[in-house]
Amino acid sequence: QVQLQESGPGLVKPSQTLSLTCTVSGGSISSGGYYWSWIRQHPGKGLEWIGYIYYSGSTYYNPSLKSRVTISVDTSKNQFSLKLSSVTAADTAVYYCARDGGILTGYDYWGQGTLVTVSS
Amino acid sequence: QAVVTQEPSLTVSPGGTVTLTCGSSTGAVTSGHYPYWFQQKPGQAPRTLIYDTSNKHSWTPARFSGSLLGGKAALTLSGAQPEDEAEYYCLLSYSGAFWVFGGGTKLTVL
């Protein structure tokens, strides 16, 4: 059973960089065919796709966030990470990591989500 | 950037049938948008119901089905149950480069 778990600071100051890590257990992040994704949800609002990294290292980002987002993978730790720079209060949200198997399996596993608040 | 539209809210009677739709500001939704449908209940992470227009996961109840209908992606619930009350989101791919969620539909079973 694959499990994903987000971790990182719950409070980030404005203008700083938000950094989150998703640890994958029960399966190898290096195995082919999966897009390791980040999605967020502002309080009481809908979902927003942030981006994903393919197992090969290719990245795809939401154009509206692209200038501030970096997604990377650490295969030795079976983790992938999100960095969002120059944050403002508008980046306060629950951040989810998820595995997307594309047309084969879709989004089949999600983390529980972690709330990140941007405030001084 | 493309805008994906969904009905803000819908109500269905227990045992009834309802169709949720997902449209795109760029034109008709096609299989090339690989439509996904998610269900989210309060305090929980989303759960995928449908991927690639009409494919179901092992956990997707048989009463849910996905299709393309009138230039939109559609999620049909046949035989609504009280536990189907939730927020439903669609997700569309644009040129395989990025994805956009719809604003969500709050489904009430009443």
Percentage of residues in strands of chain A: over 45%
- Regions of chain B with pLDDT < 50 over 5+ consecutive residues? none
* Cα separation of the termini of chain B: 36 Å
Alpha-beta classification of chain B: mainly beta
Bulk shape of chain B: globular
Average residue-wise pLDDT of chain B: 96
N-to-C SSE series of chain B? EEEEEEEEEEE
- Largest sheet of chain B, described in full? 7 strands, mixed
Largest beta-sheet characterization of chain A:
7 strands, mixed
Form type of chain A? globular
Number of strands of chain A: 11
Distance from N terminus to C terminus of chain A (CA atoms, Å) equals: 39 Å
Can you characterise this structure?
The complex is a heterodimer of chains A (120) and B (110). With 120 residues, chain A is mostly beta strands. In chain A, 3% of the residues lie in helices and 52% in strands. Chain A has one helix spanning 102-105; strands at residues 3-7, 11-12, 18-25, 35-41, 47-54, 59-61, 69-74, 79-84, 93-100, 107-110, 114-118. In chain A, strands 2, 4, 5, 6, 9, 10 and 11 form a 7-stranded mixed beta sheet that branches. In chain A, β7 (69-74) and β8 form a beta hairpin. The longest helix of chain A has 4 residues, at 102-105. The termini of chain A are far apart. In chain B, strands 2, 4, 5, 6, 9, 10 and 11 form a 7-stranded mixed beta sheet that branches. By secondary structure, chain B is mainly β. Chain B starts with a strand and ends with a strand. Chain B is built from no helices and 11 strands. Chain A binds chain B through residues 39, 46-49, 51, 60-64, 96, 102-103, 105-108, 110-113, and chain B through 1, 34, 36, 38, 40, 45-48, 50-52, 55, 57, 89, 91, 97-104.
